């Protein structure tokens, strides 16, 4: 599931940078987040991705946000839908938080434009 959502390169990079110290958290993420929560059937993957993008933006976790913007696009979210969820962030978490999230998302979305 992790490779399906995030892409082969993202997951390969995560595991290539793994050290003996960080191995337990990578295994935990793979088992709990991707092996359990992301595979529940109630929400589709696009909805899960948009929720995740919103939470990461709200928390200011730009590195993780970048990967999950890619994942949201992989799961069928449109740039317009990403803009909408980030506008929600502006209302509820503040404009500076949303501006940073827009910058991060734009680095992914704009890279896909011809």
TrEMBL record:
GO terms for molecular function: peroxiredoxin activity. It comes from the Eukaryota. SUPFAM superfamilies: AhpD-like. InterPro entries: 4CMD/NDH-1_regulator (IPR052512), AhpD-like (IPR029032), CMD-like (IPR003779). Signal peptide: none annotated. Gene3D superfamilies: AhpD-like. Pfam families: CMD. Residues 25-105 form the Carboxymuconolactone decarboxylase-like domain. This is Uncharacterized protein LOC105037766. It comes from Elaeis guineensis var. tenera (Oil palm). The gene is LOC105037766.
């Amino acid at each position: 599931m992790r490779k399906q959502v995030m892409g082969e390169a993202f997951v390969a990079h995560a595991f290539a940078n793994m050290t003996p110290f960080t191995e337990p958290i990578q295994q935990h993420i793979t088992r709990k987040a991707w092996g359990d929560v992301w595979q529940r059937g109630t929400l589709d993957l696009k909805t899960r991705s948009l929720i995740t993008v919103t939470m990461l933006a709200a928390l200011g976790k730009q590195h993780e946000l970048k990967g999950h913007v890619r994942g949201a696009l992989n799961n069928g979210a449109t740039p317009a839908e990403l803009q909408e969820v980030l506008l929600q962030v502006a209302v509820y978490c503040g404009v500076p938080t949303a501006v940073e999230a827009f910058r991060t998302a734009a680095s992914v979305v704009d890279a896909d434009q011809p």
